[in-house]
Amino acid sequence: MAGLNCGVMVALLGVLLLGAARLARGGETYEIALPHGSNITVLIKPGVPTLPANVCHIISKGWVTPLSIKAGETVVFSFSCQDPQNHFVIEIQKNIDCMSGPCPFGEVHLQPSTSVLPTLNRTFIWDVKANKNIGLELQFSLPRLRQIRWGESCPDGVTHSISSRVDTTTMVRIGTFCSNGTVSRIKMQEGVKMALDLPWFHNRNVSGFSITNRSSIKRLCIIESVFEDEGSATLMSANYPDGFPEDELMTWQFIIPAHLRAIVSFLQFSVSNCVKKEERVEYCIPGSTTNPEVFKLKDEQPGNIAGNFNLSLQGCDQDAQNPGILRLQFQVLVQHPQNESSK
Ligand SMILES: *[C@@H]1O[C@H](CO)[C@@H](O)[C@H](O)[C@H]1NC(C)=O
Ligand SMILES: *[C@@H]1O[C@H](CO)[C@@H](O)[C@H](O)[C@H]1NC(C)=O
Ligand SMILES: *[C@@H]1O[C@H](CO)[C@@H](O)[C@H](O)[C@H]1NC(C)=O
Ligand SMILES: *[C@@H]1O[C@H](CO)[C@@H](O)[C@H](O)[C@H]1NC(C)=O
Ligand SMILES: *[C@@H]1O[C@H](CO)[C@@H](O)[C@H](O)[C@H]1NC(C)=O
Ligand SMILES: *[C@@H]1O[C@H](CO)[C@@H](O)[C@H](O)[C@H]1NC(C)=O
Ligand SMILES: *[C@@H]1O[C@H](CO)[C@@H](O)[C@H](O)[C@H]1NC(C)=O
Fold it and tell me: Which InterPro entries does UniProt cross-reference here (predicted)?
């Protein structure tokens, strides 16, 4: 009991100190200048849950809520309250068009820099449009990413939401990811939308990823996981828990240290009603004479895999009247060989 009280005291003190730091910054004036042709827009809007509108205002030549800043504009503003982070969020969207010219590829910068932005929850969004046959690869420098289920949240509040454009109007959710995991690269085709959520109390000032163009990957996406040591990763089919898009192909690649073994287990899945082709998973396993090894989702999946391997999920042409839902959540467990006698 005494221990608990002590913990509460420390937490309370922390809140008070934070409050003081915020207060000192209150009334600050901000200036955001977005260069012409930068294709960046900034929006400062009420957060969720929305507090009563008269508690805090954005002041810039009068009260303006929400405040929207377009490329080519310079806006000076301040807040009428001491704690704007409790009322507002900021969304920074950059559109990158690779259809009309070469893409500015490489390391992605947070622009405008977090040092000129007010201390609010920030969402940086990059919307990249490319031609149908161009592969786009997102590469995550350390830390690598850990996939979470839709609606789950990350312990530090830093969240990566990644979608792929499959035609001009349709986006497919590839997944939502936290910052400590195994996912090192995600390859998509045609277009990518990446949203990075940074809560106001987090001091991260870099995006943590780069974008590269690749040749066509001839499928919805490829997700690469790298294991340095023993561990596990839980991964999901695109759009999970909703249905995997009809007649699509998705691949996961696994990089595993040579002295360890991998076991694949399907945690949850359902299949759709196919009129043409069969839904299946295919493994490319080093040393196998029957590559690719084809399994139904209900089959027992391979264990004791030595070396790097990949796993692909192939959808089918669904019954239009009663399509059903193809979805898969699975785990890859990497550990030392458990039993020498079983291969
Ligand atoms: C902004 O978009 C235009 C038209 O899509 C494009 O030509 C230009 O290169 C883009 N600028 C930047 C900095 O991405
Ligand atoms: C800011 O983010 C935190 C944690 O992610 C959340 O609890 C809080 O409600 C958000 N604030 C606003 C104003 O949306
Ligand atoms: C990442 O964080 C979660 C939650 O804190 C933890 O359960 C998990 O083991 C961590 N994973 C890795 C790979 O560090
Ligand atoms: C990010 O913060 C670190 C340490 O605070 C600093 O050294 C670095 O220059 C900053 N980077 C950017 C892009 O602002
Ligand atoms: C990536 O884009 C550059 C410039 O547009 C081009 O020269 C290169 O061939 C592209 N690479 C691939 C793999 O498509
Ligand atoms: C899967 O693995 C096989 C064998 O290692 C390789 O030939 C193939 O290119 C891989 N495919 C993908 C999409 O990673
Ligand atoms: C190892 O595998 C063999 C054959 O698969 C089995 O009979 C034995 O019980 C296993 N031993 C352990 C310790 O799991």
Answer: CDCP1 (IPR038811), CDCP1_CUB_3rd_6th (IPR056266), CUB_CDCP1_1st (IPR056268), CUB_CDCP1_2nd_5th (IPR056269)
Predicted structure pTM score? 0.87
- Predicted confidence (pLDDT) per residue in 119-170, tens digit: 999 999 999 999 989 999 999 987 899 999 988 999 999 999 999 988 878 8
* CATH at 324: 2.60.120.290
197 C-alpha to center of ligand 2: Å? 10
Q: For ligand 2, say whether the CB of 199 is within 6 Å of any of its atoms.
A: yes
Beta strand pairing call for 293-295 and 280-284: antiparallel
Tell me, using a 6 A CB cutoff, whether residue 212 lines ligand 5.
Answer: no
Tokens of 60: 């810039």
- Domain membership flag for residue 261: yes
Closest-CA residue, ligand 3 atom 10, reads 180
The alpha carbon of 113 and the centre of ligand 4 are apart by a number of angstroms equal to 10
Contacts of 14 (CB under 8 A, 6+ apart): none
Residue 295 in any domain: the answer is: yes
- In degrees, rounded to 5, the angle at the alpha carbon of residue 114 between the alpha carbons of residues 108 and 116 is 130
Q: How far is 263 from 331, CA to CA, in rounded Å? A: 8
Write out the residue range of the structural domain in which residue 265 sits.
227-343
pLDDT at residue 13 in the model: 40
Q: Indicate the number of domains in the chain.
A: 1
Q: Is residue 281 part of a domain?
A: yes
Query: pLDDT higher for 89 or 8?
Result: 89
